[in-house]
Amino acid sequence: MKKIMMVDDNIDLTYVVKKRLEKTNIYKVISANSGKECIKLLKKGKIPDLILLDIMMPEISGWDTFAKLKANDKWSKIPIVFLTAKTDSYSKGYGLVSAYDYIEKPFEFSDLKKRIENIVGS
Amino acid sequence: MIQIQSSETINYLMRTLIRVIGRRTSENFALETLYSAINELKPKYDFLKFIEIGSVVYSAELDAIAVKSEINYVDPNMLGKAINEVLDIIARSLGGSSDYDFQEAEHFLLTEVQDELGERHNIILKQIGINLDIKQNQFIIEMQEAYKIKIKRMKKTDVLDHILKSIIIITKKNHSEIEASKILVRAIKKYQKEYDFLKYLQIKEPTSDKDPYIILVNSEIDNIWSAKMAKAIQQIIEDSGKTTDLKALETFIDDLKNQLGRGDIQKIEKIGINLNQVHNSLQRQKNEIIFTKTIELIIDTIGEKTSIGFAVSMIDSIIEKLKDRHSVLNNIKIDKSLFESGIKAFDIMQEINNESSHDLARAIKDIMKNIQNNFADKSNSFIEDFKKKAPSDYISEIEKIGVNLHILELRKSLF
Prior knowledge:
The structure holds two protein chains of two kinds.
Chain A: E1 2-7, H1 11-23, E2 27-32, H2 35-43, E3 50-53, H3 62-71, E4 80-84, H4 89-98, E5 101-104, H5 109-120
Helix pairs in contact in A: 2-3
Chain B: H1 7-24, H2 27-41, E1 51-53, E2 65-67, H3 76-95, H4 102-127, H5 132-153, H6 157-171, H7 177-192, E3 201-204, E4 214-217, H8 221-224, H9 227-242, H10 246-270, H11 275-283, H12 286-305, H13 308-322, E5 332-334, E6 346-348, H14 357-372, H15 382-389, H16 392-401, H17 405-414
Antiparallel strand pairs in B: 1-2, 3-4, 5-6
C-alpha cells in the first residue's frame, strides 16, 4: 500500500480525502492538521510516498513547510503536491517549479486520484 | 697623531645640516637643534667648544656658525666620535618631530647631507670615522623600530569606530539605516569564526525592529592590533562594499575616503589597512556581486508571493538541476539549514570571479527560464516582477554580460 500524507488544516476535507483514497485499497492516508504536525510525524518515522500539502495554514504556511521538508536530506526526496485554494498565477507558477504537481481546490476526486497515480503509481 | 684639516669640513657639515633640516622644518628650528646637540655633548667632548654657535637666531649668511682652526689638532678619532653623536642626537630629534612624516624623514637627512657635502668633504669625514652611508642605514633601522612602536601605541579604537560609522553612512545611500547596520553586522559575523579578535567589535542587538544594530569598538583592540587584524578589517570593508548597488560599487572606496577625511586615511594606512587594495579587489569581484544581487532579487520577488524559505529551496533545487549544464554554478554552496534566512543560505565562492561573464550570464538566464516556465498567465510573470524590483544599474550591468530580461519575456510569450 502506498502511504499518502495529507497536510491540511481543514479537518473535514482531510477526512473526506482519507476515506475516498483508502477506499481504493491502494492508499493509506496519514493526516496532519498543520505543517508542524507534518514535521512531527516525519520525525517519528512516518515517511510517506507522497505529501499532499495545503498552502494557507496557520503557524507554518505550506510554503515554509515545503522549505523545511526540502532542507532535510531524509525527507527532501518525498514527492510533494500542493493541494490548495490559492489559484493565483504566481502561486501556481512558483509552486510548479519545485513541487511535483499543483492541484487547485475545489477538485474532482477522480482528478486527484489520477494525479497521485501519475506520481506514485496505482 | 695624524693631523687632518677638518675644520673646513666640519664647518661645511654644520652649514649643510642647517640647510637640509631647515628646508623641511624651519631654519630657526634647524639651528636650535644643532645648538642643543652640541651643547648637550660639550661636557663630554670639551673640544666641541671650537664649534661656535653664536646665536639661535638664524642669519642668512650663516654667520652664526664658526668652526675654529684648533679643531684640526683634536684627536681625529675623538672628533669623529663626537660628531657621530651630534648626528645621532639630531636624527633622533627629527624622528620624534610630529612635523615629520617618517617615510620622508628616514631618507632625506643623511642622503641629502652626503650629496651636498660632495666627495672631498665626505672623504675627510670618513678619515675621522664618520661614514654617512653606514649612519644612514643605522638611522633607517632605528627609525623603523621607532615607527613600529609608534604604530603599536597609536590609538586604533577611534579610527576603527570612524571606519565602521562611515561604512554605515555610505551604505545608507542605498539602504535604510537598519539594513545598513545589518549589512555591516553580517560582514563582521562572517569573519568572527576566522578571526577571534573580532569579538572586540561588540555588536549590540537592536531593542526593537525600528532600531539599527550598534557596533562598539572595545579599547582592547589597541593592545591586540596586528597585520591580521588589519586584514580582517579590510575584508569587512570589502564585504560591505559588495552590498552596494553596482554603480556605487565603483565609488564605494572613494566615498569611504571622503567620509574618513585625510587625517584618518593616513592613520588607516599606517595601521596596515590598504583601501586601494580593497577597491581593486572589489573591481575584480563583479561576477560574485552580480550573482549575489541576482539571487537576492529572485528571493525577494518569489518570497513576496510565497515565503523566503520556499524561494531559497526553489533556487536550491534549480541550481542543483543546472549544475551539470553550467559549471559556473559549482561555485555556489547552499546551506539547507539556512533556507529561511534568505541570502545568508548562499555561499558564493570567490572562484566565481575566475569564470567568464558569458558563462555566468547563460546560467542566470537558465535559472530565470526555469522559474518563468510554469507561468501560464502572460500578464503575471516572474520576469515582470523581477524587473520591477531590480535597480536600473543592475539591469544595465546584466545586459552588458548578456542577460536581456526583455528577450526572456518575449521568449516566454512565444510559447
